[in-house]
Amino acid sequence: MEETTGSIGGSQRATAELALSDEERGRLYEGVMRIADASVANVPAPAVADALPSEVPLQDLPAGMAQEVPQVRGHKFVKFDDRIVVVDPKSRVVVAMIPRYKLLP
Which contiguous run of DSSP H or E holds residue 66? Predict the structure, then answer.
């Protein structure tokens, strides 16, 4: 017979995904894409609730973004080829993902 118990502290996957509307995702996308010198991470893109490796640099969200989208206050972002992820800087866990579409030449 298996017994289910709770754990104190939980795992890194316990971090909840931010509840962002399409409009808020759009504001985040536009704000991040305006940062001309934001580097693109050169590792496989993670999923929501994945922890990023320590060698992936986290970047500050654009100034004023926390006023427009209060849920992202205190978070950072990482840009990938096909997505932008919002990250909890303490745990390095991805808490939101915004698809990034490229136009083909």
Answer: helix 65-68
Residue that has been written with the tokens 């006023």 in this structure: 67
Q: What is the pLDDT of residues 89-103, one digit of tens each?
A: 999 999 999 998 755
For the record, the structure tokens of 14 come out as 């316990």
Q: For residue 2, give both structure tokens.
A: 């298996």
Tell me which long-range contacts 31-37 makes (C-beta under 8 A, separation of at least 24).
31/61, 31/62, 31/65, 31/68, 32/61, 32/62, 32/77, 32/79, 32/84, 32/98, 33/100, 34/62, 35/59, 35/62
pTM: 0.80
Task: Give me the domains of the chain, ranges plus CATH numbers.
Answer: 15-99 (3.10.450)
Tokens of 105: 């030449």
Residue ranges in the chain whose pLDDT is less than 50: 2-14
